[in-house]
Amino acid sequence: MPAPIVYFDIAGPADAGQAAFYEKVFGWTAGPGGVVAVPVSGPVLAGTLRTDSAQKVIYIGVPDVAATLTEIEAHGGKTVAPRFEVPGVVVLGLFTDPAGNAMGLVELTADGKTKIP
């Protein structure tokens, strides 16, 4: 069996307001030590892209990428790439959280599947 991802950190300075940001925008409630149990449905897909520098981006499934980017900006995040489509594949958006972490959004259908344009 391939090794599963079992934990990840979205790190930032204590004053960045990470826990409040993710709770307000995505409904993730942080417990002691800032630990959040994030819901996962089915296998988590992982891609290996060729880039000029090492980086990682975690993508969060949402019902409306454009509306979520508006919410992100209202709570201290910044839009990096507004809602865009990869035809026949996926609908995406990119943002940074208040600490500057690069993150992504994937638009989901009402039944929780990836929206394919």
The name of the CATH architecture is Roll
Largest sheet: 4 strands, mixed
The N- and C-terminal alpha carbons lie at a distance of: 32 Å
Summarize model confidence as the mean pLDDT.
88
Tell me the count of domains: 1
Description:
With 117 residues, the protein is an alpha+beta fold. It has helices at 18-26, 65-74; strands spanning 58-62, 78-86, 90-96, 102-107. The chain has a 4-stranded mixed β-sheet with strand order 1-4-3-2, with helices on one face. The N and C termini lie far apart (32 Å).
What is the gist of this entry?
The protein is α+β, with helices and mostly antiparallel strands.
Protein traits:
single chain; 117 residues; alpha+beta; 2,3-Dihydroxybiphenyl 1,2-Dioxygenase, domain 1; 4-stranded mixed sheet; globular
Q: Topology of this protein?
A:
Layout lengths: L17 H9 L31 E5 L2 H10 L3 E9 L3 E7 L5 E6 L10
Parallel strand pairs: 1-4
Antiparallel strand pairs: 2-3, 3-4
